[in-house]
Amino acid sequence: MAFLEIQHASKLFAETAAVQDFDLAIERGELVSFLGPSGCGKTTTLRMVAGFEQPTTGRIELDGVDITNMPPSKRNVGMVFQAYALFPNMTVGDNVGFGLRVNKRPKEEIDQRVQEMLSLIKMPELGKRYPYQLSGGQQQRVALARALAIKPQVLLLDEPLSALDAKIRVELRYEIRRIQQELGITTIYVTHDQEEALALSDRVVVMSAGHMEQVGKPWEIYNYPTTEFVAGFVGTLNQLRSRVVNAQVGELDYHGQRFKVSGELPAGETVIAMLRPEQLRMGVHPGENQLTGKLISLAFLGAIVRMGVELGEAVVTLDALNERRLALPKVGEPLTISFPPHAAWVMPVD
Amino acid sequence: MKKKRAPVWVWLIFLLGMAYFFIPLLSTFEFSLRMIKGTYSFEAYRVAFSDPAFYKNFGYSLLWAMLTIIISSIMVVWTAYWVQLRLRRIRPVVEFVTLMPFVVPAVVLTFGLVRMYGRPPLLLTPTPIPLIAGYVVLSFPYMYRAVDAGLRSIDIHTLTEAAQSLGASWGTILFRVIFPNLRGAILSGVFLTFAIVMGEFTFASLLYWPAFGPYIEEIGSMRAYTPQALSLVSFLLTFLSISAIQWFGRGSREQQAQVAGAH
Amino acid sequence: MGELPALSTAGTVGEKKGEAPKAPPPASRKTLVDWLGVLPFFLFATMFLFIPSFSIFIRSFEKLGGGFTFDNIIALFTKSDIVNAYKTSLTISGVTALLGGVFGFLMAYAIVMGGLPTRIREFTLSFSGVASNFAGVPLAFAFIATMGNAGLITRTIETWFDLDLRQAGFSIYNSLGLSIVYLYFQFPLMILIMAPALAGLRREWREACENLGGSGGTYWRRIAFPILMPTLLGTMVLLFGNAFGAYATAYAFSGSFINLVSILVGAQIQGDVLYNPGLGNALALGMMAIMATAMVIYLYLQRIASRWVR
């Protein structure tokens, strides 16, 4: 029996299904991300756990207790909203202590807990400030402290960083992970940012159009996507629509150029070969597959150099790690790329 | 999202509000129809519209309104624009001045104007200058707020610099770049000013100038029914002006809020 | 700045007359031009707003035959008809601000959060824009037709209950009647300002409150109401000033039956009814003082509100 179980939960709004048959067991202390484009049902699922939405079918159990129809105020689940959900009329300290005051805890306990929480988010001196005197990043820290002050059984974060600047976002991402691990609190983290999900989760649930696409550890999701959606949504992906030449040895033909892939080929005459940009290399490397096309774009991004190579009807993206003595090819000239057979994987068409 | 149905008390409050809105209008209309005893007729309207004094006073009000609008809009638009462009630090001062009509109600301002300019060395009361000046002051809050909101929603710095770099003169910048971009805002100030000046009573009556407001009051002391007919005309003017604002502006509703003492 | 021919000419004219009151002393050419741009506005405001106001202030301290005195100011607090006028004005303004505020708030709540159809909300807001600007003489006549001696409501009550209100000594040309008239523009103004404020309450606040264990009551008591409070109070102060400065509506509704400060000031303009010009000025000064206080309170509350809710 897992700590938090969402069992076959579905949610219908009017006639459309926002969430369909969501089924997930989350272990105590685990951080699970719900990742997907907007409108995929990730937030609705989170809100069902918080109690702001009732599942149309299915149930939710927390530590063995059925909370499916329990009102939000009774669930003891802490939530951090997208942005600006701090009560503007209260100081930081009053915001953090709000849940405890509502539950009529003694004053000393509240004061102590508030101070504890402010130290946890590294803002011990700012208890007397008002939200409007804080930066966006600080406000979200306070929102986190407020949610944690009531010692919730589960912490829910609904795109907590999406309204912040890129730099703060990365900083706060690790801060959230640190606090989560320090407290060992079971956490659901909703985001549309794949990098964020991969960086801080124990497990990731990729969702699209209301249903779960894949559940797995971040590296599993990235390296072994089980559906085309996951493969395309997480990371950049090159897709080469190829003809099967020899199924036994995994030989494929792409616009007259032959290459091999390892692993089993699905049935059919045409398949799609998938390649991550960082697994492609410039030039000829012995023992690897070679494809030759024309370099049509080149962007120097600092750590990596991103190239676009026109190959048949597709433009293949290639990421090369920067080196100080890297000789950059010229745009418009032919370029050969190499990759080992195990770097590619194959999916059936449609 | 869940759509909750309105509870009974909400409907009751709403209906009470609607009653407050419409019963006086309905009563006024009914009253205006009762000029001929025992039957409903439009006699009051016929009488009202056949009085040459009506046209004279109404015409004067139109004239006052036009003058006010021209002076106020040019002065306020120019000042708001200039302050935004060059003197951002005195913006609070300008804002303060435009809010002054709240602190100095119409009747007090008239009092001050009469006492100050009703005698030499600067005798202005024989001219309509104090009247128009009073109206312009009265229009400041509406005009400034509307224009200021409009200015803030466009990047006038960049627009001005872009126009300058293309060789435009200040006249061109103002009339062909800034004004057209502020059209909605200016129009909302203009119509509000129009609505206020057309029914205004305090300044016109105390400074002894013919106008629509004092005219209604005057015939009110002489006969019944026609003033109600004219009141509805006045209501219609207000209604049309505000509708025009909503039609052109479609901006923030707060701009319509009555702030100063035109009542 | 070569492309400023018109303004530089204006500059020389201004300099000759020595009329650049706000210009900083060692003004460079550019700053001088900057200040000249706002000169017409400030000149106008000085001439038709500040000088008349200031003259009222100065003359409030003028003795009947000339010379300085505090008597006029003292008379404001001691002379019974003046004190009464202030009392009546303050009462009517306070009452209509409170009632208009409360009812306007309820209306705003009804149309924004009450679950009424969107079209009703749109309509009410539009009509509030009209009603809050419908005032003065026409409003007075509308209410005379409504609840005057031959008004629709008066006649309706008389036929329904078979009584003669006029003979019963009932009149609406008093403070109560005037308050009812004022409410016609008071509560719509409240709606206009409160509706956006209510719509500005974020769903997240309610949900965060619920999430932390609070009930709907907790939410209103500790979050929504405190957040709305500055706007609510500020608007009521605005309504107060709105009624306090009103002259036309009161004059057209009841002539000088109701002893209001504004009516008294109006009478003082038409003819020195107090037989003391200095006292007339003091009367007007008192109005300005009260309005200025209201304005300061309003601006202060508005600043709090705008800080909280952006």
Task: Give the key terms.
A: 350 residues, 8 helices, 20 strands, 24% helix, C: 310 residues, mainly alpha, 0% strand
Q: How would you sum up this structure in a few lines?
A:
The complex is a heterotrimer of chains A (350), B (263) and C (310). By secondary structure, chain A is an alpha+beta fold. Chain A contains eight helices and 20 strands.
Per-chain topology:
The complex is a heterotrimer of chains A (350), B (263) and C (310).
Chain A: E1 4-13, E2 16-26, E3 31-35, H1 42-50, E4 57-62, E5 65-66, E6 77-80, H2 92-102, H3 107-120, H4 136-149, E7 154-158, H5 166-183, E8 186-191, H6 194-200, E9 203-208, E10 211-216, H7 218-223, H8 228-233, E11 238-246, E12 251-254, E13 257-260, E14 270-275, E15 281-282, E16 289-300, E17 304-311, E18 314-321, E19 334-339, E20 345-348
Helix pairs in contact in A: 2-3, 2-4, 3-4
Chain B: H1 8-32, H2 43-49, H3 52-85, H4 91-103, H5 106-117, H6 129-153, H7 156-165, H8 170-181, H9 183-199, H10 202-206, H11 212-220, H12 226-248
Helix pairs in contact in B: 1-12, 2-12, 3-6, 3-9, 4-6, 5-6, 6-9, 7-8, 9-12, 11-12
Chain C: H1 5-17, H2 29-59, H3 71-78, H4 80-113, H5 118-131, H6 137-147, H7 152-161, H8 175-199, H9 203-211, H10 216-244, H11 248-254, H12 261-270, H13 277-308
Helix pairs in contact in C: 1-2, 2-13, 3-13, 4-8, 4-10, 5-8, 6-11, 8-10, 9-10, 10-13, 12-13
Strand content of chain A: 35-45%
Rg value of chain A: 24 Å
Radius of gyration of chain B: 22 Å
Order of helices and strands of chain B: HHHHHHHHHHHH
User: Helix fraction of chain B?
Assistant: over 70%
First-last Cα distance of chain B: 43 Å
Structure class of chain A? alpha+beta
Assembly annotation: heterotrimer
The count of β-strands of chain A is 20
Overall geometric form of chain A: elongated
**Biggest pleated sheet of chain B:** none
Describe the structure.
The complex is a heterotrimer of chains A (350), B (263) and C (310). Chain A is 24% helix and 35% strand. Chain A is of the alpha+beta class and 350 residues long. Chain A has a six-stranded mixed beta sheet with strand order 6-7-8-3-9-10, with helices on both faces. In chain A, β17 and β18 form a beta hairpin. The longest helix of chain A has 18 residues, at 166-183. The radius of gyration of chain A is 24 Å and the shape is elongated. Chain B is mainly α. Chain B has twelve helices and no strands. In chain C, 75% of the residues lie in helices and 0% in strands. Residues 1-25 of chain C have low confidence and may be disordered. Chain C has a single domain, classed as MetI-like fold (Orthogonal Bundle), CATH 1.10.3720.10. Chain A binds chain C through residues 50-52, 71-74, 76-79, 81-82, 84-89, 98-99, 102-103, 130, 132, 143, 146-147, 150, and chain C through 202, 204-205, 207-215, 218, 222-223, 226-227, 307-310.
